[in-house]
Amino acid sequence: MQSPRPLPPAVLELARRQAGLVTASQLATAGLDRRRVHEKVAQRLLVRVCRGVYDVEPTPPSLRTVAWARQRGWPCPTDVLAAGRRRAAVLALLAHGPLAVASGLAALTLHGVEGIPLAYRAEVVIRTSAPRAPGRAGRVRRFRGTGWTTTPDGWAVAPLPEALAQAVLALSRHPRGRDHAVAIMDDVLHRGLLTPSGLRKARRLTWHRPGAQAAQPWWDLVDARAESPAETWARLSCADAGVAPDVLQLDRLDSSGRFIGRVDMAWQLEDGTWLLVEIDGQDVHGRPGALVHDAERQNRLLTAGDVLLRFSGSAAWRGEVAAGVAQVLRRRGRRPPATRR
Fold it and tell me: Is residue 124 helix, strand or coil?
């Protein structure tokens, strides 16, 4: 039996840039008419995702690991989950055609913002008054005055202030919406994607819209010193428990005044020593040799009497940082719980 002919290289290259997805019109441009597309679907060389959009890989997205992406020469984020978020945004844009603009969480994903939920419903705005086509992925929203810009890789997206406003309003209905929204806002400020004035503009864009009242307190919780969503979640859980950190990003110096490291969060104890908390990120601490480096760094950071606690990003999400901090503070006689910043 003759093996099926592979997809044209042009199709595979296009899919590589589009999270593994291609449209029916792109396939037609590459010389695959409707009959040949049906053949490729039957041969499992193409998988229909939604009306007019196909995946060039039969492997389910949930099973696509970093090693899998490297083997195929695909763009390979250190966080595989980020690839899933991006795929959802790209799918919505491809499904709704060249007049679609990614909005809300989908736009933030394509802007490269962190802190977005693992699973979300991608939303787009259509730059015409055309009705929504049935059977398409994602959701079409109507936002008055929505502009658009283009990412470096060519995707049409809402500008960051508008995308952030749209995302915050959508997250007002999410069970952990505050934690995601604050992590997103921390990220855009920390990395300079928005200035404080840009953040204020985004907040104004939410006024008088559904969800704005529920989300209003979130904007006052933003802190640009957070270096990852996990740090944001740890900070929020501690504040909720009445043990907000005294210092964020505490610089540690040796006896001669030389800088030896920075600690994510710190509480000063009654005897003048410190409770230090580090939130480990998978992208940094998962590298070969990182454990040895971290152990050496830990020894340099600690002085006599200090306590160092380390938590994973997952533990931060589950709220375990606050419980660990409160336990040490009680044991070391700190009363009342810390409320200083």
Answer: strand
From the number of C-beta atoms within 10 Å of its C-beta (0-12, 13-18, 19+), residue 298 rates as middle
List the 274-280 sheet strands across, edge first: 247-253, 259-268, 274-280, 307-312
Query: In terms of DSSP H, where are the helices of the chain?
Result: 9-17, 24-29, 34-42, 66-72, 80-96, 104-111, 160-171, 177-190, 196-206, 212-215, 229-240, 282-285, 290-301, 313-317, 320-331
Q: Specify the pLDDT at position 61.
A: 76
In one letter, which amino acid is 194? L
> Which pLDDT does position 103 carry in this prediction?
95
Tokens of residue 138, six digits: 């994602």
Give pLDDT, residue 159: 95
- The predicted structure's pLDDT at residue 207: 94
Q: Percentages helix, strand, coil for the chain, rounded to the nearest 5? A: 45, 15, 40
Measure the CA–CA gap between 304 and 167, rounded to whole angstroms: 46
**CA 18, 146, 85, 280 torsion: positive or negative?**
positive
- pLDDT given for residue 292 in this prediction: 32
Distance (Å, whole) CA 72 – CA 66: 10
Instruction: Enumerate residue ranges in the chain where pLDDT < 70.
Output: 1-3, 64-70, 72-80, 129-146, 281-304, 335-341
Question: In what helix (H) or strand (E) does residue 131 lie, and over which residues does it extend?
Answer: none
Pairing state between β 139-140 and 247-253: unpaired
Distances (CA, A) of 19 to 23, 91, 157: 12, 8, 16
Contact (Cβ atoms closer than 8 angstroms) between residue 146 and residue 205: no
Q: What is the DSSP letter of 286?
A: T
Q: Return the CA Rg of the chain.
A: 24
Instruction: Retrieve residue 92's tokens.
Output: 């919505």
> The tokens 């000063």 sit on which residue?
268
pTM: 0.87
The model's pLDDT over 277-293, given as tens digits with 9 standing for 90+, comes to 999 855 433 333 333 34
Supply φ then ψ for residue 140, to 5 degrees: -95, 125
